[in-house]
Amino acid sequence: MKIAVLTSGGDAPGMNAAIRSVVRTSLYYGIEVYVVYDGYRGLVTSKFKKADRNLVSEILTRGGTVLGTARMTSFADKEIRTIAIDNLRKQGIDCLIVIGGDGTFRGAAALNDEGFPTIGIPASIDNDIGGTDYTIGFHTALQTVVENIDKLKDTSSSHQRASIVETMGRHNGDLALYAGLSTGAEFIITPEHPMNKEAIIEALKRHKIEGRRNAIIVITENILDVYDLAKEITEKSGFACRATVLGYVQRGGSPVPQDRILAGRMGAYAVELAKQKISGVAIGIQHEDIVHYPIKEAFLEKNKKTLKGLFELAPKIA
Ligand code: F6P
Predict the structure, then answer these.
(1) Per-domain residue ranges for the chain?
(2) Closest to 107 (Cα-Cα) out of 38, 10, 16, 8
(3) Catalytic pick from 11, 94, 102, 126?
């Protein structure tokens, strides 16, 4: 049997740990394993390389992806995917394991529908894949956001300012929510939990009168212009307010143990499925167990029950 593995879409810490797990588990079972460079683009240009143990040595702790990645919009075209499938077949590959987020999974679902066995491992700092409690990379990005908010809190408190912190997440608020809870943020604004600007300004006025020295407002990207909001808060609340956009720093760094272990478990599980000729599935973690489910379920909305509970908790402990 021959397996190929690639990473695609936005990189996420722990992708290397997942690649390593796929390669090492395959070799453990005597399966021939190939890596593909630069995501789906590498399938189309035939950038395969046969892997041995050494190819994945010393990558467990590294951020990013040693295979490279790409956002390849043209992979939505069937003709482009047909070239990819032809190349996979020429190489004699029996199953493709893709590591990535939502866009990557759409490509995987299409390849599988078109007859090429494909399995998806969820890796994205956004934690926006349906059917899994966590994606690989989320906890490392969360750690980065929390470290940065802690630092911002120091300077905000010294200057008696309010601070707006914009996180990534695309259209999913988990990073902002979990970071807000971890840092005792006064306000958390996400796509699932929209902003009431007037209420925030009124609350900040009260906080000023009560003598509070700082306020943290965490907000998911793509909601509004945080610099405009900072200006308005400064004008209306009595708190001087500054905005910080954390940006791409959230995608880098050595994965935290939780992401390394998750990647190790998911990579090995993907190989077990490939051995059993199971494909067209995504891998997830649900209540600490590694599971698989039809890949199209990954595009459905995430279970919002936990989120609801966390949003209710936030104001009680802020
Ligand atoms: O999906 C990961 C992510 O970092 C999102 O949080 C963000 O919106 C997007 O990727 C940025 O994409 P790009 O790397 O293409 O600029």
Answers:
(1) 2-137+255-301, 138-252
(2) 8
(3) 126
